[in-house]
Amino acid sequence: MLKNRLKNVLIASVLVSSSLMASSYSYNTVSLLGIEGGYANATADTTYPDAYKTNDTNLVDMGLKIGAETDSYRIFLGARYYYDIDDNFDYLSTYGIDLQYKFNFSPKANFFIGVGGGIANAKLTLDGENFDRTISDGYYNVDVGFNIHVTSGTDIELGARYLEVDAHNIKNDIDFQLNSMVSAYGSVIFKWRMD
Q1: What is the pLDDT of residue 164?
Q2: Which of the listed CATH numbers 3.30.360.10, 2.40.160.20, 2.60.40.1930, 3.30.2000.30 matches domain 2-192?
Q3: Contact indicator for 120, 137 with CB cutoff of 8 Å
Q4: I need a labelling partner for 128 at 20 to 30 A (CA). Which of 55, 93, 104, 195 fits?
Q5: H/E element holding 30?
Q6: Sign of the torsion formed by the C-alpha atoms of 96, 101, 105 and 111
Q7: Which letter, b or e, does each residue of 29-49 get, where b requires 16 or more Cβ atoms within 10 Å of its Cβ?
Q8: How far is it, in rounded angstroms, from Cα 24 to Cα 69?
Q9: Half-sphere exposure (CA, 13 Å, Cβ side) for 184?
Q10: What is the reported pLDDT for 24?
Q11: Which of 138, 57, 139 is nearest to 90 (CA)?
Q12: Residue 49 banded pLDDT, cuts 50, 70, 90
């Protein structure tokens, strides 16, 4: 239910923001395609009937994002897959939307701050269990970073992202909770005008 509502809100936000951007900024709007890679750390808690355990998991992520930007704003739809270095998750992925405000302090670069949200999906097996646990819950995130304008059609983006999930999976009186992820990432952003 929450997942469907979140999807509807995200789709409506994209449609409304796209139409507003197109009508107000159509002459300064460019399309974007980004390829992202980074390093992340996820924190999770496991609550047993008689014990409590906190886990930190190291992840390497790859992502693809598409969007548009004006002089001051960027919007992206993105998908990211996280490879678990510590082998705690069978898979972990996110799908969402990001809206960023750009501070254009130089012709060569800008600083951005943004917010976003989406769905986090994960599958794992806890030690000693013979069944899988799955998570598919909403998240929200904040991000900050810099865009370095390499050419008129290419940017290098360097950023940091905090993602709050708060997803629970309770089976056999054991509660697994995926709390949050912090990541540092870099992207190559390709820009072009659509006529």
Answers
A1: 96
A2: 2.40.160.20
A3: yes
A4: 93
A5: strand 30-48
A6: negative
A7: bbebebebebebebebebeee
A8: 12
A9: 1
A10: 47
A11: 57
A12: confident
